[in-house]
């Protein structure tokens, strides 16, 4: 009788199931992989980039299915037990609305972007890793939408989230971040999302939302957060590996990678200013201030990473000095912009109550009482007289990050003076929130002059008209339901009746 062949070892099995790349013969490799050369990154050996996940597709499905099963069991029991009653206050839901409108569609963009580079990298190791990450990101948006759909039955502000994401002025901040990354080449995309966002900044996005949810009695969000975070560990590994691979392949790659790290750390931070306002203002109970989170997750933890990259000649991005100077001010300035433009937001806004203001002055002893409390006092007086202030205009947006030009000269210690920059390009004037956005523009002006700027679009007559009712109509925001002050809102009434 013929002897049965020995089974393959685990390592060979894994290789046979994952390393499916080959050199093409009847088509030129450059035609099959047209995108991975034009950015100037030089690669000599794709084999050096191993798939960091070391998982077969088969194992991946089993593993992820297990996680989903657990998550959906929690979400079901949350809905059955009417756990929305356990919220500290329904004003908390503005934080969830910001997440669903701002972050969840970005997960989908990450899915599309990783699927794209999974096709276009020449090496088969990164291809399979990027493919898995693309599926992870799709799973993230699905679990988030399912989690939050429960609130849609009880509260306003959840139903039109994809429509809002593509149009509303402040949601163009995360949208333009991903549009920018996805219209770059594959190497810049992986630095932008895999490294700067996932590796350097992700903790500042997810941890505050998740711990904020836990502090405010919202366990469904905590569950999807944990479920997504367990994928993030893999994403971080891929991001770091991508950077090291580029840096090790050729010294000519170093300045290109440095420019991308500088650009995307800044772009990522500008998205995080929305999270800063969320942490300091939108959570009835805040576990941590924005400033504390920045100091812990960036100033302390990321130093080690940059020390590690120093041997390749990589330096800490210049923008870190600006972020440091802004950390005492950013959350206040962003929330005040939301408050004054609260007629055109897809969530409620409000003046922080006494308890919150006391907490803010403890967390920001240098700045809150001196600069910001007096403004809230003034607004409160007006609101009590029935004259709650709503701007009838939308704020001017930065051409690059699309955050309103709202920050002040914090680096030169003139916190009441507006910080803005301008560049004239082909006889048109462009506005920026900072030197860093201006530099990004000046490096690639042709890219950013085509940016879809929500406020400019309104003035150009592309959004149904220039007044607030016209704009709300275009946005599909129901006036008096989704926008304006939390006080007196249907959400507040619904919560109090529960
Ligand atoms: Fe994700
Ligand atoms: Fe991710
Ligand atoms: Zn900007």
UniProtKB/TrEMBL annotation:
GO MF assignments: monooxygenase activity
Keyword Iron part of the UniProt annotation: no
Highest taxon in the source lineage: Bacteria
Listed SUPFAM superfamilies: Ferritin-like
InterPro entries: Ferritin-like_SF, Phenol_Hydrox, RNR-like, YHS_dom
Keyword Transferase assigned: no
Name of the protein this chain belongs to: Phenol hydroxylase P3 protein
Organism: Sphingobacterium lactis
Phylogenetic classification of the source organism: Bacteria, Pseudomonadati, Bacteroidota, Sphingobacteriia, Sphingobacteriales
């Amino acid at each position: 009788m013929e002897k049965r062949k020995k089974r393959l070892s685990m390592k060979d099995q894994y290789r046979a199931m994952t390393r499916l790349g080959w050199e093409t013969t009847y088509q030129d490799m450059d035609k099959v992989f047209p995108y991975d050369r034009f950015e100037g990154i030089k690669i000599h050996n794709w084999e050096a980039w191993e798939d960091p996940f070391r998982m077969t597709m088969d194992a991946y499905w089993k593993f992820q299915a297990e996680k989903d099963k657990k998550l959906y069991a929690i979400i079901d029991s949350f809905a059955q037990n009417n756990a929305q009653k356990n919220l500290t206050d329904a004003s908390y839901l503005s934080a969830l609305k910001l997440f669903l409108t701002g972050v969840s569609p970005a997960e989908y963009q990450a899915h599309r972007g990783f699927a794209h580079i999974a096709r276009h990298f020449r090496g088969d190791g990164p291809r399979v890793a990027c493919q898995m990450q693309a599926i992870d990101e799709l799973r993230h948006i699905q679990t988030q939408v399912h989690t939050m759909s429960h609130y849609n039955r009880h509260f306003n502000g959840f139903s039109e989230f994809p429509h809002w994401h593509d149009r509303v002025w402040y949601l163009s901040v995360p949208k333009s971040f991903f549009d920018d990354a996805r219209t770059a080449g594959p190497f810049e995309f992986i630095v932008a999302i895999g490294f700067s966002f996932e590796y350097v900044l992700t903790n500042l996005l997810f941890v505050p939302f998740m711990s904020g949810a836990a502090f405010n009695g919202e366990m469904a969000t905590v569950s999807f957060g944990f479920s997504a975070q367990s994928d993030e560990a893999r994403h971080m590994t891929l991001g770091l590996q991508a950077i090291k691979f580029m840096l090790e392949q050729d010294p000519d790659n170093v300045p290109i990678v440095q420019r991308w790290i500088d650009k995307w750390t800044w772009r990522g931070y500008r998205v995080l200013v929305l999270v800063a306002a969320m942490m300091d203002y939108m959570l009835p109970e805040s576990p941590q201030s924005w400033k504390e989170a920045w100091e812990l997750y960036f100033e302390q933890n990321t130093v080690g990473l940059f020390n590690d990259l120093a041997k390749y000649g990589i330096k800490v991005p210049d923008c870190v000095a600006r972020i440091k100077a802004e950390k005492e001010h950013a959350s206040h300035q962003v929330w005040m912009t939301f408050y004054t433009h609260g007629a055109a937001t897809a969530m409620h806004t409000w003046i922080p109550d006494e308890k919150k203001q006391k907490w803010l002055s403890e967390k920001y002893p240098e700045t809150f009482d001196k600069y910001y409390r007096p403004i809230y006092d003034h607004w409160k007086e007006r609101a009590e007289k029935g004259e709650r202030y709503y701007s009838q205009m939308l704020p001017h947006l930065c051409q690059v990050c699309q955050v309103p030009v709202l920050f002040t000269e914090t680096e030169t210690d003139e916190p009441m003076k507006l910080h803005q920059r301008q560049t004239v390009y082909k006889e048109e004037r462009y506005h920026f929130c900072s030197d860093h956005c201006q530099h990004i523009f000046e490096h690639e002006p042709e890219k950013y002059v085509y940016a879809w700027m929500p406020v400019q679009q309104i003035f150009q007559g592309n959004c149904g008209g220039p007044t607030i009712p016209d704009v709300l109509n275009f946005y599909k925001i129901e006036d008096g339901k989704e926008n304006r002050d939390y006080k007196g809102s249907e959400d507040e009434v619904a919560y109090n009746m529960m």
